[in-house]
């Protein structure tokens, strides 16, 4: 079969060319926190991504086992595990995309901001290493509180003289994934076809799904139904934290969301046109210096931060309500990084 020919060919790019498509370029992806609840399934999903040629799995412990395990899967990327400070540089060197799910997760009763004291320090030290070893990489920040860890990363990079606002992303894809699932269930549309922009930030009321822009349109939902869908999306993380009852927060759905977002970044880097995802980035579409909205991805990371579109009165109110919390989370991150 053609597939066998492609697999067996020692110069497969020649064979592929004859079918009209260019081979995808070499891309190294590094996962920091790769032995964790998110890190392990994310490592698996990135190993399945044919756009990845090298997969570097870093954590403070347990990465040799995770890397040995994942490396046996017969897909394109070469997998290596790295453990401890001494090996962080090597894990990062030459990386095109660095995904960061390192840090502690919530337990019931905690807010994401309660993670700040531990995770801010972890993110600061990892970003210091990124500035040194792969200053041009695209960063996918998953560690919470995202509303603060992204500004921390920006400050660390600014101090190192490596900051490129086009390459720093807070991963809010899980909010979009949840909004799609919950909307499809209520509006009676095929869940695989649904899209819903989610803007603002990634904590409580700063998560603002724009159901008025959901596509395709399903059955008309009442104001009460939209209010309930909005609240469920905002509390989606807490729903999982409570169900896990002390054993952490979302890991599997987050690994899926992280893999979707990283894939979009890789496609953008490879020059695939019209790649649009919501993400928390440096922004001028509101008065807040960081804000999540639809972003067009390209060869340099952010190609364009897209606007909010038309908002309903309910969404306008949600936008006003989130600004002070988001602003103070941003300021908290900046202050920490400069302390
Ligand atoms: P986890 O505790 O299962 O895994 C975290 C991993 O990070 C561990 O393996 C730990 O060893 C590692 N780690 C700690 N310090 C490190 C360091 N200095 N360098 C490298 N690795 C380090 O937690 P988890 O469930 O995987 O969650 C990780 C983070 O992701 C949490 O902060 C959580 O709140 C966040 N999260 C974000 C989203 C989102 O939508 N952005 C979704 C879910 C979870
Ligand atoms: C999520 O949205 O699931 C994550 O941010 C984890 C959490 O603490 O809720």
Any overview of this molecule?
The chain is of the alpha/beta class and 339 residues long. The protein is built from twelve helices and eleven strands. The chain has helices at 2-8, 12-17, 39-47, 63-71, 88-92, 116-133, 146-160, 173-187, 223-234, 236-244, 252-269, 313-338, and strands spanning 28-32, 54-59, 78-83, 97-100, 138-141, 168-170, 198-200, 207-209, 275-282, 290-298, 301-305. The longest helix has 26 residues, at 313-338. It is globular and about 55 Å long. It binds nicotinamide-adenine-dinucleotide (NAD) and (2S)-2-hydroxybutanedioic acid. The site of nicotinamide-adenine-dinucleotide has 32 residues, from helix 6.
Nutshell version of this structure?
The chain is built from twelve helices and eleven strands. The chain has about 350 residues and is an alpha/beta fold.
How is this fold's topology laid out?
Elements: H1 2-8, H2 12-17, E1 28-32, H3 39-47, E2 54-59, H4 63-71, E3 78-83, H5 88-92, E4 97-100, H6 116-133, E5 138-141, H7 146-160, E6 168-170, H8 173-187, E7 198-200, E8 207-209, H9 223-234, H10 236-244, H11 252-269, E9 275-282, E10 290-298, E11 301-305, H12 313-338
Parallel strand pairs: 1-2, 1-4, 2-3, 4-5, 5-6
Antiparallel strand pairs: 7-8, 9-10, 10-11
Helix pairs in contact: 3-4, 3-11, 6-7, 7-12, 8-9
The structure holds nicotinamide-adenine-dinucleotide and (2S)-2-hydroxybutanedioic acid.
């Amino acid at each position: 079969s053609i597939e066998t020919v492609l697999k067996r060919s020692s110069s497969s790019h020649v064979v592929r060319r004859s079918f009209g498509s260019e081979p995808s370029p070499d891309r190294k992806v590094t996962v920091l926190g790769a032995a964790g609840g998110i890190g392990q399934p994310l490592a698996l999903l990135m190993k399945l991504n044919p756009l990845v040629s090298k997969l570097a799995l870093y954590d403070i412990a347990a990465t040799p086992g995770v890397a040995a395990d994942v490396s046996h899967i017969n897909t394109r990327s070469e997998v290596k595990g790295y453990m401890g400070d001494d090996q962080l540089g090597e894990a990062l060197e030459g990386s095109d995309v660095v995904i960061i799910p390192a840090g502690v997760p919530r337990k019931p009763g905690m807010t994401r901001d309660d993670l700040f004291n531990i995770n801010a320090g972890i993110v600061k030290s990892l970003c210091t290493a990124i500035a040194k070893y792969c200053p041009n990489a695209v960063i996918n920040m998953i560690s919470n509180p995202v509303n603060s860890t992204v500004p921390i990363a920006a400050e660390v990079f600014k101090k190192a003289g490596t900051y490129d606002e086009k390459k720093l992303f807070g991963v809010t894809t899980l909010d979009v994934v949840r909004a799609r699932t919950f909307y499809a269930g209520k509006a009676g549309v095929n869940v695989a076809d649904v899209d819903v922009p989610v803007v603002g930030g990634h904590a409580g009321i700063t998560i603002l799904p724009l159901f008025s822009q959901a596509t395709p349109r399903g059955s008309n939902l009442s104001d009460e139904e939209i209010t309930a869908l909005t609240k469920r999306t905002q509390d989606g993380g807490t729903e999982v934290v409570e169900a896990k009852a002390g054993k952490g927060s979302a890991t599997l759905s987050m690994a899926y969301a992280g893999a979707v977002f990283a894939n979009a970044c890789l496609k953008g880097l490879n020059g695939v046109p019209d790649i649009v995802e919501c993400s928390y980035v440096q922004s001028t579409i509101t008065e807040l210096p960081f804000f999540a909205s639809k972003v067009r991805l390209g060869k340099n990371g952010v190609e364009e931060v897209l606007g909010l579109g038309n908002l309903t009165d309910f969404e306008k109110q949600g936008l006003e309500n989130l600004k002070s919390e988001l602003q103070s989370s941003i300021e908290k991150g900046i202050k920490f990084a400069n302390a």
